[in-house]
Design goal:
The structure holds 2 protein chains of 2 kinds.
Chain A (H helix, E strand, L loop, with lengths): L3 H22 L7 H19 L2 H5 L3 H16 L4 H19 L3 H10 L1
Helix pairs in contact in A: 4-5
Chain B lengths: L2 H32 L4 H11 L2 H12 L4 H11 L2 H10 L8 H9 L3 H8 L7 H25 L5 H8 L1 H16 L1 H19 L8 H19 L2 E3 L2 E2 L7
Antiparallel strand pairs in B: 1-2
Helix pairs in contact in B: 1-2, 1-3, 1-8, 2-8, 3-4, 5-7, 7-8, 7-10, 10-11, 11-12
Classes of the chains: A mainly alpha, B mainly alpha.
Chain lengths: 114, 243
Amino acid sequence: MHNVFIYIACMAGVTYIIRVLPLTLIRKEIKNRTVRSFLYYVPYVTLAVMTFPSIISATQSPIAALIALLAAMALAYFGRGLFFVAVSACVIVFVIELFTNPPAAFAAMAISLI
Amino acid sequence: MTKRQWFAKGMKAGIPISLGYFAVAIALGIAARNAGITSLQAALTSLLINASAGEYVGFSLIAVGASYVEVTLMEAVANARYLLMSASLSQKLDENVKWWERLLLGFTVTDEIFGVSVSLVGRLSPYFTYGTFVVATMGWTGGTLVGALLGNILPARLLSALAVGLYGMFISVFIPEAKKNKIVAALVAISFAASYAFEKLPFIRDVSSGIRIIILTVIISLAAAILFPVDRADKPKEEKNDA
C-alpha cells in the first residue's frame, strides 16, 4: 500500500527542482542574442498557447467563452488592467450562460410574465 | 521602492489571481476527493505544488495506485514548462539578487504569477512576486480545501464563469505586448492556430497537454528568436518592418 504523503513529497520535490534550477543556475545576463530573444518571446507564446483553445472547454457554453475571449482581448488592447479584464470575462460568461441556459426558476418567471 | 512597497504591490496583483485560483482549485479538490485523498492532504498538495495540470495528473495516478517513480516522472513532464518560465524570469532579476531569495522565488513560479511578474516594466524585485504568491496561494489552497469538502454542492454556473478568469489574466499579459510589437502580435495569432491544430490532429492530440505546450512554446519562440532577434530583453531590434 502506498503512502499519500510520500506521493505528495515526490510531486513537490520534482516540481520544486524544475522551478528553481534555472533561477539559481543562470546568475548572469545571457549574452547570446538568440537565447535572449528566445527567452523574451517565451512568456507571450506560452500564455497564448495555453489560452486557446482551452478557454472554449473551460465553460459550460463554448459560445460564451468565445465572446469572453474576444471581449477580453479588446479590453486589454484598449489599456484595461489585469483585474478589470479578468472580472469582465467572468461576468460576460455568467450573463451569457444565464440567457442561453436560464435556470428553471428564472425561465418559469419569464414565461409567467409573458 | 522598498522591499515592503514591492511586497504590497505584489499582494495587490495577487487578488484577481487568488479569486481565479479559488474557482479552479474547487474542481481540483473534487478530483482529489474522487481519488480517495483526504481534504487536508489535498490542501497540502496544493500548498506545496501550486500547479493545476500537475496536480490533476498526480491525483489520477494516486487513484490507480501508481508507483512513486511513475508519479515523479509524470509530474516532471506535466510541469516542465516551468523550466522555461524560470529561465525567462532569471533574466528579469538583478545580478545581485541573493541565492536564498532565488530559492524562495523558485517556489512561486506558476503560469499566472510568472505572467504578472514578467509583465512588470524593468527589473523584477523578488518581493513583488512573494507578495503575489502569498495572496494567490491562499485562493489556491483554500479552493482545493473547499472543493474537497463541499465541491458538489456549488452551482456549476458559478464555477463556469469563474474558470474563465484565469484566461482573462493570460490575455491581459500578452495583448499589451502584442499592441506594442507586431512580431508578438503575429506570434499570438500563430500560437492560437497551432495550439488549436495540436488539439485536433490525430496522434498529436493524444500527447499530454503539458508536453504539447512545451513543444509549441519551444518551436514558435525559437523560430521567432532566429528570424526576429531582439537586442535588449524588452526592446525588439526592429520596431517596424514595414513603413
